[in-house]
Structure to design on (200 residues):
């Protein structure tokens, strides 16, 4: 089977094109750091995947109408679907684009590599969020940057001291990727991911 025989292929062969979700597929987005771990967990169960290095996002294509934004409720994960009162667009690269572009097919379209089953995807993303971001904080927290409360706080730093108590710095999803990385927090996240990988 050639790529032309697939149910859908990107129409543009020259540049990224903004295409409406809900026409051929819906999509699920996650931060690339979380997507890296989710892809490890999914293995061969992942369909085609678009990665956008400009915004640090990764997108899976899913069947239309199989998910609603409320059905997921996962930190920093978004379901892109056609809404009754507005359209949603996703930047889709040409089918031939790979990692030498900012937006590219991390997992190319191909036979058996089109839509991702949402049951596999949601399980992988839940585990990836725990492995990479740690347990979800209880309740709302203030973002260190905008100083507004967020329902999806991302722990970006843990202030270490000799005392028993240590303060955690939180950010909203918008400002989390701009925070100067804390090497200790990153190491802890990597250790959690490795531990979960060994215990599976």
């Amino acid at each position: 089977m050639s790529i032309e025989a697939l149910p859908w292929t990107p129409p543009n062969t020259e540049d990224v094109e903004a295409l409406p979700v809900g026409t051929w597929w819906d999509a699920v987005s996650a931060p690339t750091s979380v997507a890296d771990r989710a892809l490890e967990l999914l293995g061969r169960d992942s369909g085609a995947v678009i990665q956008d290095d400009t915004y640090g996002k990764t997108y899976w294509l899913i069947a239309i109408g199989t998910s609603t934004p409320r059905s997921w409720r996962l930190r920093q994960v978004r379901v892109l679907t056609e809404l009754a009162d507005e359209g949603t667009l996703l930047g889709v690269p040409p089918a031939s684009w790979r990692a030498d572009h900012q937006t590219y097919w991390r997992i190319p379209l191909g036979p058996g590599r089109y839509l991702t089953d949402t049951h596999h995807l949601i399980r992988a993303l839940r585990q990836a969020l725990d492995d990479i971001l740690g347990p979800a904080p209880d309740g709302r927290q203030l973002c260190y940057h905008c100083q507004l409360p967020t329902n999806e706080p991302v722990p970006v730093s843990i202030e270490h001291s000799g005392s028993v108590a240590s303060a955690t710095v939180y950010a909203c999803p918008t400002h989390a990727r701009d925070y100067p990385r804390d090497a200790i927090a990153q190491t802890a996240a990597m250790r959690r991911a490795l531990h979960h990988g060994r215990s599976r």
About this structure: The chain has two domains: 17-133, 141-197. The first strand starts at residue 17 and ends at 20.
